[in-house]
Amino acid sequence: MRTIILFPMMLALLEASCNSGVVKEQPAGDSAKVTAVSCGGGASRAGRLAHGGKATMQVSNLGYAIPATADTAHWPPRPWPAGMVWIPGGSFIMGGVGSFSRKDEFPQHRVALDGFWMDQTELTNAAFAQFIQATHFVTVAEQKPQWEELKQQLPPGTPKPDDALLVAGAMVFTPTQHAVDLNDYSQWWRYVPGVNWRNPDGAGNQPGLEKHPVVQICWTDALAYAQWAGKALPTEAQWEYAARGGKEGREYGWDETVSMDEESDKANIWQGSFPYRNTQKDGYVLSAPVASYEANAYGLYDMMGNVWEWCNDWYRPDTYKTDLEKGTVHNPQGPAKSYDPDEPYAPKRVVRGGSFLCNAAYCASYRPSARMKTSPDSGENHTGFRCVLTDAAWRKLLEQHTQLAQR
């Protein structure tokens, strides 16, 4: 497996006035089988290669600072982490709602969560660049794939691909010239050498994307950033709860009376006929700058559409069946192991929220309950992330900051 560079939490008072190998398993039964059409990049990176394709202070850790902003909504006021919003604790019914729901979104089950902080937007290219500058971290897409690692994700006996194919790169969406079979994602996804977060679409470094979500980030890259920032990747349950914005039982993240023609006013999704004709009604071919659309009731932007977002959980199609058997689940962390019946040797992590490629006639995954799976070492140009922070962790940072200030 890839090595993740870990940056341990280190607190410092910067300035008082100015201011961070999965075991193959069998499915639980027929109900665990996923028959959904996937609008993700499909096969794992290994599979693709094998087949040729305002702040008064800052609380900081090593090289990173989380600005603290005054809280004017509560008494007594206390600082809160800038760029994040508070998601109050509570319980909700987690799982599929509506006709677009897939088998792995069921059964519905009750989940209880403690409150937590969540990034208001998807992480931007500008923010990720600060991380890279401070740490010199090298993302997975910038590294040459190692066959000894990749073959662990493939059926035994899979022949090694030509060395010419084992080059640094990532998955890129390429529209087709005409209507195609939507069950064959290989017609619009390709592995492109030289593609990475700086060059997400294979067109070279593009200026003006600083406020766009960073993409071509695999799960291990996202985790490295989160640890450096003193945060974490959200669990699936945290993500869905936050995406619903306190509005339980809705199929979408907006009013149910919104027509399909009006959906492009609510989120950055694909307009037209996927995957060959995009009318660009929303003005965007690919990603949009973060916060281009209205926030949900919690103040979170782009929870639906724009780019998929990594969650911390391993993927299994039968996760919810197991959770239902436990009764109300408190702060679930997901399964201990991954299992994907489509690629049983390749571990998968969960991504949520849909992307600019989602279309009502295709995957329609711009729904709070929609789940998708992706290999943790696979970057794609429609996948990014945002982070969370427990209140206990934030209070601890503030306490340590206060202790340092009093010395």
TrEMBL record:
It comes from Deminuibacter soli. Pfam families: FGE-sulfatase (PF03781). Residues 83-388 form the Sulfatase-modifying factor enzyme-like domain. Gene3D superfamilies: paralog of FGE (formylglycine-generating enzyme). SUPFAM superfamilies: C-type lectin-like. It comes from the Bacteria. This is Formylglycine-generating enzyme family protein. PANTHER family: FORMYLGLYCINE-GENERATING ENZYME (PTHR23150:SF19), SULFATASE MODIFYING FACTOR 1, 2 (PTHR23150). InterPro entries: CTDL_fold (IPR016187), Sulfatase_Mod_Factor_Kinase (IPR051043), SUMF_dom (IPR005532), SUMF_sf (IPR042095). One of its GO terms (molecular function) is formylglycine-generating oxidase activity.
